[in-house]
Batch of 3 targets.
Target 1
Amino acid sequence: MAWTFYTDEQKQLAERYRLAAREHIAPRVREVDENDRLPQNLLERLVKPPFSLTALSVPKKFGGLEMSKVDVCIVAEEMGYALPCLVPFLEIAQLYTHVLKYAGTENQQKRFLEKLATGAKGCYALTDEGPGSDPTAMKTTAKRDGDFFVLRGKKRLITFADIADLFAIFATEDPSLGADGISAFIVEKGTPGLNLAYHCKALGLMGHRAWDMDIEDVRVPVENRIGERGDGLRLAFKVLNKTRISLSFGYVGLARAAIEKAVEFARTRVVQGRPISEHQAISFAIADAAIKVEAARLLAYRAAVLSDKTDRHRKETSMAKAYAAEALIDAVNVENRVLGGYGGDGRYDAERHLRDAYSWISAQGTIEVQKVIAGREILGG
Ligand SMILES: Cc1cc2nc3c(=O)[nH]c(=O)nc-3n(C[C@H](O)[C@H](O)[C@H](O)COP(=O)(O)OP(=O)(O)OC[C@H]3O[C@@H](n4cnc5c(N)ncnc54)[C@H](O)[C@@H]3O)c2cc1C
């Protein structure tokens, strides 16, 4: 489907990714869902053209595609439609790219962005064992020891930690400073002390594989701190303000898939001699869900357009993320209602869509936290 308000280039971009996903990803969806793992040969394909999911916004001088935020969002919608765990996959590369673009030295950008452009995979360890929505309560510490920092703590729900080549880890250099003590570090795979403690088995979003990590005296060279001492949390929030927009488009992609299935079923399911689509109870439910999904895309599109011009769009990003998450939940609920007894049947996509949606909506901050941010932006304080 081509959105009428997109430029011709944007429509072509969506079409390219849609066709590539239909050919290479759609046949693997069930396998990924059943095994909760992205197969190695699919992973290898995803980091190369026509996908290049780790290189989307890496600058061209480091070998990336240097896409605009709007274009990354268009790709995220197609991945959300095809196989939602690919949105976290591309999002983590976005998190890295933005962290390095904002705060990396020339040398750090070259070292790490060139790796991303050639398919290195990352993970992003912000959420701590303490309350996840409040990273200022972080307990993971970074203590200076000569030319190294020594990191120690516990991280939760770290997506793709098992396949990561690069680990962005947030840790406090001085817990008494709260938010102002937190710094960001990049740690390379194989560094002793990076331990996967527990595979968080989710209800859905299979293939994204999140892990609790024990970080036990991990020694990081001082040159791997990104930004200044205490800049980490401001950096993390600045970056999330960008990536939550493409995540919202990922939600829209999955919601679009759910509505398409509901429509297809409603048109073809005949009960008492009539397709169920002829009942207003069914058509209104689908129309209401579709209205929200289209509105979610527009809100997220507004945030993406702003994001290509400025960094000042916290209200627009948080509104887009909260609304897209709620629109997604509505879409998968309606899909499952419309399918009646087939809704929970594993042979139909509706059941997977429902699991994926509920497992996904808290990533990069819950709906409530987005409303807290939007509320502060609207009301002040
Ligand atoms: C699929 C998935 C992938 C993830 N991947 C990563 C990753 O790669 N790296 C990473 O660092 N983290 C990751 N996370 C963690 C994610 O960022 C946290 O789950 C999220 O920030 C919420 O934290 P929490 O789960 O500890 O919830 P809590 O903070 O314990 O919140 C529990 C409930 O309280 C509500 N709440 C909290 N504070 C407020 C408030 N001020 N006002 C109103 N309500 C509030 C929340 O909305 C929620 O309903 C992932 C999560 C998911 C679901």
Target 2
Amino acid sequence: MPGPGSDPALQQTIAYPGRAPGAEPDPAGDGARASLGALRAEVAKAVVGQDAVVTGLVIALLCRGHVLLEGVPGVAKTLLVRTMAAALSMDFKRVQFTPDLMPGDVTGSLVYDAKTAEFEFHEGPVFTNLLLADEINRTPPKTQAALLEAMEERQVSVEGAARKLPDPFIVAATQNPIEYEGTYQLPEAQLDRFLLKLSVPLPSREQEIAVLERHALGFDPRDLSHVKAVTSAEDLAVGRAAVARVHVGPEVLGYVVDIARATRQSPSLRMGVSPRGATALLGAARAWAWLSGRGYVTPDDIKALVLPALRHRIQLRPEAELEGATPDGVLDGILTAVPVPR
Ligand SMILES: Nc1ncnc2c1ncn2[C@@H]1O[C@H](COP(=O)(O)OP(=O)(O)O)[C@@H](O)[C@H]1O
Ligand SMILES: [Mg+2]
């Protein structure tokens, strides 16, 4: 059973194959898929395992979504996102969310220039392609809200003037599942703004041995100069256009809606998935179908994305929580109960 701590469905398949037999010729799309596939091998030069997290980030880039990474400290969340940025040749910034961080520290602020006697806007770290928002639940709601607003609107408004963020712009926010004291849990309405919530699990025994071996051989996580840029913004644009052409049949639409409706009726849940959540699930599954070399979405694509796309959009009833229910467990139960179209 896929417990909390892994997204096994995303780990399978993808060698990001070529085109499916019988599919329309799409040389540009095939090239983009191959270059996004090369990302995994490139990230693997620094990070052992965590393939599902890399795939989740690629899906989010294709969907213009943001991701929440949950895992205990020391499982290479920071290393992974830094390596991704290098392999994507994207501008990268990292913000450590602390209790005293102010909204302006994220978005930027007006600074008075004595020489010109005018206020000038100094861009905050949010003006980047890939922002690592580390330990987002350690900062008070006001600063969280500033980030979430920038994520949603893809712009920053200061003193009435709107400033556009670069494209692509993706936030990878991390949170530690364990430390609840002195932290500010993100409100549900704001969690909904993340396309995917990915678990970053502890490594297996073999993987951990591989990590130690690398370090023994002199691997320095601060030096990523051996990581090459294998994907360009152009590949990403071509990929997005190809994902938009992925066909979705009426039976798949019905399946997504049946899953969403089942979450609203589940006795274990206080709050089910909104139509926005259902849309997010479908979009992510479409990107995944394209990465898997298909021009159409299957029910299996939907199943593969249900946990990462929905686990942060549902709320357990306190009684269910006391009985040991988890969001992943409830969603697994729903997947077993909802009839799969064929
Ligand atoms: N899967 C892994 N592959 C390679 N190095 C790892 C892995 N897990 C942990 N490490 C090592 O542990 C360090 C801690 O990683 P870091 O990215 O700071 O973790 P986190 O952000 O999750 O707290 C890394 O820099 C690396 O040296
Ligand atoms: Mg870190």
Target 3
Amino acid sequence: MAVPKRKHSNARTGSRRSHDHKEMVQITYCTGCSTAIMTHVICPKCGTYMDRKIVEPKVKKNKRSSSYK
Ligand SMILES: [Zn+2]
């Protein structure tokens, strides 16, 4: 089995881990309804992507009001 010959220095470990941090999520605003959305994602509120209507937005049903009608 291959075994490392020398211990890595703390600086070498730190410089390797310098790329391991989290990055901020890219946010843009929908052209249809101005909601903050992730880039390259269809707007969940109005179903628009690149100024085109792609899908009909899902309408949330209120479980309590629908079950007692
Ligand atoms: Zn939208």
